[in-house]
Amino acid sequence: MAQLHRWDFWCFSTKPLGYLDVVQAIEAEVYDAWRQLRQSANPSKAWHQWKSETRKLFQDLDKKLRGQQEAVVHVAHATFTVAEMQYRQCGGEASHIVF
Q1: Which residues does 42 contact at the CB level (< 8 Å), separation at least 6?
Q2: Can you tell me whether residue 38 is helix, strand or coil?
Q3: How far is the C-alpha of 41 from the C-alpha of 48, rounded, in Å?
Q4: How confident is the model over 24-65, as pLDDT tens digits?
Q5: So what's the pLDDT on residue 95?
Q6: Are 37 and 43 in contact (CB under 8 A)?
Q7: Rg, Å, the chain Cα set
Q8: Closest CA to 12 of 60, 44, 69
Q9: Which helix (H) or strand (E) holds 89?
């Protein structure tokens, strides 16, 4: 049985656009890239270089944000587990009101 080859493409996540600093950095970067393209002797090469560098930057940013989100979820899960254990160890209905 032949296995189909699967191509995985990275898609730009719109989550970083929720941060004003990121949007302003993108705007400044685009303006600089536009200026460089206008002055370049070989705009196609400059464009592909800028595109690959920008893609790498966005991939790294996306990876960092996902890592931070996973860390927050892990801490919240641990906190919830501790609260759940304390709830089960408490005796009586009056003690359960605290939780």
Answers
A1: none
A2: helix
A3: 14
A4: 988 998 999 999 999 999 999 999 999 899 889 888 888 888
A5: 60
A6: yes
A7: 24
A8: 60
A9: helix 43-89
